[in-house]
Amino acid sequence: MPEGPSIVILREVIQELHLKNKEILEVSGNVKTIDKDLLLHKKVRGFKTWGKHFLILFDDFTVRIHLLMFGTYLFDAEKSTSLKLGLTFGNHQVNFYTCDIRLIEGDINNEYDFTADIMADEWKPAKAIKKLTAVPDAFICDELLNQEIFSGAGNIIKNEVLYRSKVHPLSKIKDIPDAKLKLIVKEIRLYAFDFLTWKKAGTLKKHWEVYSKKECPLKHKLKKVNSGKLKRRSFFCDHCQKKYS
């Protein structure tokens, strides 16, 4: 599943096509969750992201695209995979595949809390800490994937941030010292922007310290466990990461 930084890259690339305020001349694809005709001859007013959601803004509504686990997109090109939604402008075509598409009516700010987006200018770490402490019995590995707290964080970010912070994934929120919680919240945003830089450079995997690895950087054997209530895969080091209890 693409994580927040990958969706930011999508937004940046599509913005480079200068499609803002451009009219959609043709709508194609097999999408059933929205009325395609509603988009025809409408002008796009902008593009935003919220975590793993890509948002196409119109005057009175927004089209939300979630790429799920295997979603893809192409600009000015097509592929053999069944097209979910294609938008044709004067000089460009934008195609989305294997994704979930929804329509959001009204002001997008009433639908999304952009202060929870780990890559947004509006990000507020203090709110994240407040939300974490409100679920004291939760495992940190689960809450780092909670999109209402850390919108855009996925399993790669979770694993790498917990290793950076030296915190075991099965530590409960109530047992983690305040200084460590603040460090985790700080590192999740820092790592998200490192992720963005490495993804653009095509070197993301080279920088993984524990994700999909067998040893940590200090050569300790890593454990691989489906952890927490969510049972998402965690890679961690019992030597380097403390389990608070």
Automatic annotation (TrEMBL):
<feature type="domain" description="Formamidopyrimidine-DNA glycosylase catalytic">
    <location>
        <begin position="2"/>
        <end position="90"/>
    </location>
</feature>
<dbReference type="InterPro" id="IPR035937">
    <property type="entry name" value="FPG_N"/>
</dbReference>
<dbReference type="InterPro" id="IPR012319">
    <property type="entry name" value="FPG_cat"/>
</dbReference>
<keyword id="KW-0234">DNA repair</keyword>
<keyword id="KW-0456">Lyase</keyword>
<comment type="similarity">
    <text>Belongs to the FPG family.</text>
</comment>
<keyword id="KW-0227">DNA damage</keyword>
<protein>
    <submittedName>
        <fullName>Endonuclease</fullName>
    </submittedName>
</protein>
<dbReference type="InterPro" id="IPR015886">
    <property type="entry name" value="H2TH_FPG"/>
</dbReference>
<keyword id="KW-0238">DNA-binding</keyword>
<keyword id="KW-0326">Glycosidase</keyword>
<keyword id="KW-0255">Endonuclease</keyword>
<dbReference type="GO" id="GO:0004519">
    <property type="term" value="F:endonuclease activity"/>
</dbReference>
<dbReference type="Pfam" id="PF06831">
    <property type="entry name" value="H2TH"/>
</dbReference>
<dbReference type="InterPro" id="IPR010979">
    <property type="entry name" value="Ribosomal_uS13-like_H2TH"/>
</dbReference>
<keyword id="KW-0511">Multifunctional enzyme</keyword>
<keyword id="KW-0378">Hydrolase</keyword>
<keyword id="KW-0540">Nuclease</keyword>
<dbReference type="Pfam" id="PF01149">
    <property type="entry name" value="Fapy_DNA_glyco"/>
</dbReference>
